[in-house]
Amino acid sequence: NAGVMQNPRHLVRRRGQEARLRCSPMKGHSHVYWYRQLPEEGLKFMVYLQKENIIDESGMPKERFSAEFPKEGPSILRIQQVVRGDSAAYFCASSPGYLWREAGNTIYFGEGSWLTVV
Amino acid sequence: AQSVSQHNHHVILSEAASLELGCNYSYGGTVNLFWYVQYPGQHLQLLLKYFSGDPLVKGIKGFEAEFIKSKFSFNLRKPSVQWSDTAEYFCAVKVDTGTASKLTFGTGTRLQVTL
Q: Cα(B28)–Cα(A83) distance, rounded to whole angstroms?
């Protein structure tokens, strides 16, 4: 849904640099999900956040990856010291809260950020 | 652990052909199922969802899916595809962990419709 805004849409980083991906949820939504889509693979859950709180980070790699959703501003997925294997599409989705039925029983995806590590 | 399997990785059809994409899930809890479509370079769009009630679910753009509990399946169908249906299709199951809900996706099926 166009209401979830992600930027940048495309990002190129050299190995060892940092990548920061931003996600602004739909208006009225306070919960954000991050997913990663590797080539020829489906979307893999990474992390689920509400403002100022990480709810579920079971899909986050143990090192180099972090996510936050501050009280003000967008959610940020940060990848430190990027490697070629981090090249992927990163999708953000939002919901108004724990109860999906508040949003018609679904979550809404942004258009994705494509990270290329060279 | 929950999982979703999509057995067809790449499907090529001619326009007007009928479509059926397979989706099987493995999850022991209450099942909520989804089909999403991703057009090239775009975000995921919801095609249809099943939460309860009639197991035959109708979605947008003429798509439908049938939930068959005994087969753990939620196959996507369309009687007559169009060239504009060329896209990648993802099946997903909603998982409730007590503190959070999240979607677990299959690996996707790439549909190519030829004229």
A: 37
- The Cα A110–Cα B64 span in angstroms is 24
- Taking one residue from A and the other from B, the number of pairs with CB-CB distance under 8 angstroms is 55
**Cα(B110)–Cα(B6) distance, rounded to whole angstroms?**
11
Q: pLDDT in tens for each of the 115 residues of chain B?
A: 678 999 889 999 999 999 999 999 987 777 789 999 999 878 889 999 998 889 999 999 999 999 999 999 999 999 999 999 999 999 999 877 666 778 889 999 999 999 9
Residues of chain B contacting residue A111, judged by C-beta atoms under 8 Å apart: 42-43
For A50: left if phi > 0, alpha if psi spans -120 to 50, otherwise beta; the answer is beta
Residue A65: name the closest of A50, A49, A7 by CA.
Answer: A49
Which among B34, B43, B104 has the least Cβ separation from residue A110?
A: B43
